[in-house]
UniProtKB/TrEMBL annotation:
Matches recorded under Gene3D superfamilies: Ribonuclease Inhibitor (3.80.10.10)
A Pfam family of this chain: LRR_1
InterPro entries per the UniProt record, alphabetical: Leu-rich_rpt, LRR-RLK, LRR_dom_sf
Name of the protein in its database record: Uncharacterized protein
Top-level taxon of the source organism: Eukaryota
Length: 126
């Protein structure tokens, strides 16, 4: 999968996937939509991003990562995703951090999180 450099969308939701995200996902620079919700994925979200200054690749528009078992701190890189319109992180009770940088008036359509552990003034909380 990580050799598919022109891949723009990947939908693997509800497939009972296990394990951590492969680090090569960040090399898929054209990946715009990533739907991995409702699996049993673990580890951190760091493998999703390459941060060079304030430029993040891939430049996701939709990240649906809810209802897995991700843990750790939400990567700072998320705030630099200028095209992001959908971010679903609820159902990952071990994720911590802040998403308030996304509450800056940009055209977000949907942001969800477990607000007991995630600080977010514009999220739909679970």
């Amino acid at each position: 999968m990580c050799l598919l450099r022109n891949l723009e969308g990947l939908s693997l939701d509800s497939n009972e996937l296990h394990g951590e995200l492969p680090s090569c996902l960040a090399n898929l620079r054209k990946l715009d939509v990533l739907e991995l919700q409702s699996n049993m994925l673990t580890g951190t979200l760091d493998a999703l991003f390459q941060l060079d200054g304030m430029t993040v690749t891939p430049t996701y528009a939709q990240l649906r990562l809810d209802n897995n078992d991700f843990s750790g701190t939400i990567p700072e890189a998320i705030q630099y995703l200028n095209d992001l319109t959908v971010l679903t992180l609820h159902g990952n009770p071990q994720l911590t951090g802040s998403l308030n940088a996304l509450c800056d008036g940009r055209a977000m359509m949907e942001i969800t999180a477990d607000c007991a552990n995630v600080d977010c003034s514009c999220c739909t909380c679970y």
